[in-house]
Design a protein that fits this description.
homodimer, 429 residues, eleven-stranded mixed β-sheet, six-stranded parallel β-sheet, elongated
Chain lengths: 429, 429
């Protein structure tokens, strides 16, 4: 007999868990209509029972293992985050023939392929739309509506905290420290902001999206990563003068030799759609061989948007329970392309340095760069100190090879006329 | 026994049909990997066998009925367009237990609810992602990832031809006639552009999206419709001065009293995301009660983007054939809200008129408007003819009721000081 109700075990009752709870309560009618019968949370597992809660709930327990072993439960929603104990709990749930929905980007980035395999082996659904881009439909459109395309390139603003900080720096001419502090006060950044500002969060998300897009496991450790801590108000100033905005992007591209996935700050021409995505918003631009460019954007985090994606997954799981067809979004395994190191990248660069303000300096630097195949496309200069004869030069280069560019930089660092290489940032063109 | 191959009958071999054919050929490997076994076009039905074709195909026939009756065929892809004979062919296909994928917006807008019901009754898939927004994932994200939300408002640039024309008028300061003629020369507009420029195409698409978003049939005739033919270079000029761009949008909103769906030109503040979607691109902004604003954008038409959506649907149908679960996206029937007439709209307006250039005229017009609850928020004036003492006035109003605004306009038309009501356009704020 088909079940007349879906019983959900919720692991985690923090920001996202409360959002899921609220949405299942407030929108119960439409969720029931979409699935074909009701879905209800029967048990909630938390770490600390004594913590004050926004909502009273009779089925609260700190014995999370008992939930994933509860034979009455059909679906586990995991919103604890982190690898352990989430991984063991989900594995047990799958072994116990429960469908799983998770918002856990770190877990899916690190162990998603193995978990998907296990779910498919049991003909179970394992959905994780909420793990990337909060409320934006991203993972499932890549698996379904866009799946016929060969993905050529994908680039996205995947972290709302850093996008907020960079937006504030640009609009209010703030330093990074000040913007970060304000983001923390507003609750947009954690007390320990490492995961956001060092790019780990975006690295997890890019690994997940790339794995789906290229139908092969993209190990998170092979996604190149740089954070935003080195970005200064000066860089944002010069970027603006040159017609660019600075964003931190996750970018993945397929080349004949392999796949290159990377997270780092980028100068984006102001007319690019992603250059106009501000504050905590996320957006991903997907280039497919047939579809061309598609851009999906919205709120990338927060209780309600994340709940929206979790509940979308729950509706799919519910329909599959009612009509059959669970486990139908297993990860296809294509012939694996090698992952390319960052040194293989071909891109343009922004380069800012302090130099002796004297004749022939510019020529000697340009000559040195040219020896490594780096040619210049634009330049800005200003005198920093008349007394000490120090000038600041900003270059934009034509597209060149990253390995060669890095060699050129290390050579320039030991040139007597170069006082300091202040920063260099890749340019998307 | 599970089928080892999906046999597709393709109805129509024009622009979209050729795109589908090419994509199934070029991306056969990845389509096979995603479905789990190969999909192949076994027969193609066309109206005129003698027409020269880009691709030779042995299974070409002008007996379309024989394709939907062919017991060897599992899936019908219909890309003929128009209601007849597409409707009868699809009904026969469903009666013959074939899954159906269509890109036919007119058919789905007018008869989609009945066809979905028939498909669900036979546990068959009926997919139409390509009917709205070309390659942009829209229909399925509304049915799945966003389905847990109550949709509060949805607005979109749904027609690439008119967006191209309005973009050209704004950027090149062209008249509508010139921009339309250029669009026709470039193949962006049909020889008979009625369906695009009068808003029928957008009306179909908005009816489809609204039906999905509100889980109730939104009859296409109850979607208010105005085209772009009345938009002049003067309107675009004044809109720019006032900080706006003119776009033609499909907008649907849920109010406590009912649903209001409408297609018409709109002044959009320049900072709005949709105001920055140009040329032939489409974009839809969906506001859900939990997800907030999500924007999905991309190429809204063309052979390859449309094929991308058709093949995405085919991959879903194929997975369902392999694993079960077909027919799981039936249209839920919610308690129907009434459809509201345009007179119930509350919005702001742009109003341009020619008046006697004499003292007190402005005051008398403002007073007259005020009698109908229409108050002003901004004004621009210029003298058109010093000799005849004719001035041109442009007003922006605060939000007011459309029924009252229309009454005010008809009263103004008979005021002696008003020479001509040149145009009025709704303003999104």
């Amino acid at each position: 007999m088909k079940p007349q109700m879906i019983r959900v075990g919720l692991l985690g009752f923090g920001t996202v868990g409360v959002g899921v709870f609220r949405m299942m309560r407030d929108n119960a009618d439409s969720i029931t209509r979409h699935i074909g019968f009701p879905a209800t949370i029967t048990r909630i597992g938390v770490h600390d029972l004594s913590k004050p809660r926004e909502f009273a709930f009779a089925g609260l327990t700190d014995d999370l293992q008992s939930i994933v072993n509860d034979p009455e439960i059909d679906v586990i929603i995991e919103v604890i985050g982190g690898v352990s104990p989430a991984r063991e709990l989900i594995e047990t749930a799958l072994n116990n023939k429960k469908h799983v929905i998770t918002a856990n980007k770190e877990l899916i980035a690190k162990h998603g392929a193995a978990l998907m395999k296990k779910a498919a082996g049991h003909s179970l659904d394992l959905h994780f739309e909420a793990a990337v881009g909060g409320g934006i439909p991203l993972v499932q459109p890549l698996k379904h509506q866009l799946a016929g395309n060969d993905v050529l390139k994908m680039m996205g603003i995947l972290n709302g905290t850093t996008n907020y900080i960079l937006t504030q720096m640009a609009e209010k001419k703030q330093s990074l420290d000040v913007a970060l502090k304000e983001a923390q006060e507003l609750g947009y950044a954690e007390a320990d902001p490492t995961s956001d500002v060092e790019g780990f969060d975006a690295q997890y998300k890019l690994a997940i999206l790339s794995t789906i897009a290229f139908s092969q496991e993209i190990p998170v450790d092979e996604v190149y990563r740089e954070g935003i801590m080195k970005i200064t108000a000066d860089d944002i100033h010069f970027a603006r003068i040159l017609g660019y905005r600075i964003k931190i992007l996750g970018i993945v591209e397929a080349f004949p030799e392999g796949i290159l996935a990377r997270v780092h700050p980028v100068l984006l021409p102001r007319r690019f759609p992603l250059a106009n995505v501000h504050d905590v918003y996320n957006a991903v631009q997907i280039r497919g061989d047939f579809v061309g460019d598609v851009i999906l954007s919205g709120r990338g985090a927060g209780s309600a948007p994340t709940a929206s994606s979790v509940i979308g997954d729950l509706i799919d799981v519910g329909r599959n329970i009612r009509l059959g067809g669970a486990g139908n979004v297993t990860m296809p395994e294509s012939d694996g392309l090698p992952l390319l190191p960052i040194e293989k990248l071909e891109t343009a660069y922004y380069l800012r340095m302090l130099v002796d303000d004297q004749p022939k300096v510019l020529g000697s630097i340009a000559t040195r760069l040219g020896e490594y195949g780096v040619s210049l496309s634009a330049m800005e200069m200003r005198v920093v100190s008349e007394k000490d004869k120090i000038g600041e030069i900003v270059f934009l280069t034509h597209i060149c090879n990253e390995g060669m560019f890095r060699k050129a930089i290390s050579v320039l660092e030991s040139e007597p006329v170069v006082k300091e290489i202040c920063s260099w940032i890749r340019v998307e063109s």
